[in-house]
Amino acid sequence: MSSATELIHSIPVDAQTGAISVPIYQTSTFVQEAPGVNKGYDYARTGNPTRATLEQLVARLEKGSTGIAFGSGLAAIDAIVKLLRSGDEILAVDDIYGGAFRLFTNVYEKFGITVKFVDTSDAAKVFDAITPRTRLIWLETPTNPTLKISDIEAIARIAGTQNCLLCVDNTFASPVLQQPILLGADIVVHSATKYLGGHSDLIAGIVVTKDKELGDRIKYIQNACGAILAPFDSWLVIRGIETLHLRVKQHCASAQLVAEFLEQHPAVDKVFYPGLPAHPNHELAKKQSRGFGGIVSFSFKNDSEATAVRFVTHTRLFQLAESLGGIKSLVSHPANMTHKTIPADKRRAAGVADSLVRLSVGLEDAADLIEDLEQALALVSKNGTKPVSTAAATV
């Protein structure tokens, strides 16, 4: 049975009514037969049938033991960090999502949890950087926004020898393309806001663990801290997952065409997309994933922030907005948007240039998207680095 067929038929029909859509249990509490005797649920912070269906579904997709659904991707990351203690160290990918950077450094460092950033696309650098205090290795692969690829299997072996956890942020790939637990990861995390939900209409996060004991620990943290996903939003993610395979297939196909177009454009310096043979991790991406994703980043030859800002404010189909993974194409300028909280020197050292632009390739016709990019590139090529208005630059 194909994974797409298995996915569709793993979403249960309601046993009580026969409803083919998962019911939304919009309730805060559950009537008990006697004190402590219930039908599996007592209070909706601890558990909800709609949320439980989602958690089981994503755990199955990721080939893990336990799924835990949170109110946001950052809430999911926060719960994982709470597994650590003061004095512990996180070894994290250098090209990291700005929200995770902010959480690790500005929130948890004051509690004595330190973070060290390393280029995880080179497993030898991970091995060299690990210390006896390292308790968590944090990967994004592909990374946000330069799409570096890390060897999950090799880094999992390193983590195993040092008795530390390996967590992979699988948001960009989705379980359709990559299943890190099968490659040795202990934890997978998703911003379900992105490809799992797929329609830019919810905020959600998911954690999946390899084993039940670790999953129970994170569930305990979730219940103690309360960062749960609401029933309706849980249903929205389930609804999005129903079309995940089809959507990801089209995202990948269109992104490949967009990347190939950008690669030959005279105004473009570098194109970051694992599906291009020129990508330094292309062969590794082919080995550990079943596709290259729907995100394409690129920088300009003049390395001008003004050029990048002018470009992102003059596309027509690519909408200027935070986030990614939805059906509508989005464009962003990481240096001023998603990665603005990262100090400029660290951001540039990780490869996030001031002129870098990130595209989330949606489900529009690829030819229309390329035509839109072509007109915006023509405009900035004609006008060079002509300053943009303050209003446009701060969108």
Shape, per Cα inertia axes: globular
How many individual helices? 15
Roughly how much helix do the residues carry, as a percent range?
A: 25-40%
Q: Give the CATH architecture of the largest domain.
A: 3-Layer(aba) Sandwich
**Estimated share of beta-strand residues:** 5-15%
Mean pLDDT: 94
What does this structure look like?
- By secondary structure, the protein is an alpha/beta fold.
- It has 2 domains: 3-241, Aspartate Aminotransferase, domain 2, CATH 3.40.640; 245-393, Aspartate Aminotransferase, domain 1.
- The chain has 15 helices and 12 strands.
- The strands form 2 sheets. A 7-stranded mixed β-sheet has the order 1-7-6-5-4-2-3, with helices on both faces. Strands 8-9-12-11-10 form a 5-stranded mixed β-sheet.
- Strand 5 (165-169), helix 7 and strand 6 form a beta-alpha-beta unit.
- Mean pLDDT is 94; it is low at 385-395.
Task: Outline the fold blueprint.
Elements: H1 3-10, H2 49-61, E1 66-70, H3 73-81, E2 89-93, H4 98-108, E3 114-118, H5 123-129, E4 134-140, H6 152-161, E5 165-169, H7 174-177, E6 187-191, E7 205-209, H8 212-225, H9 231-241, H10 244-263, E8 268-272, H11 282-288, E9 295-300, H12 305-312, E10 319-320, E11 330-332, H13 344-349, E12 357-360, H14 366-383, H15 390-393
Parallel strand pairs: 2-3, 2-4, 4-5, 5-6, 10-11
Antiparallel strand pairs: 1-7, 6-7, 8-9, 9-12, 11-12
Helix pairs in contact: 2-9, 3-4, 12-14
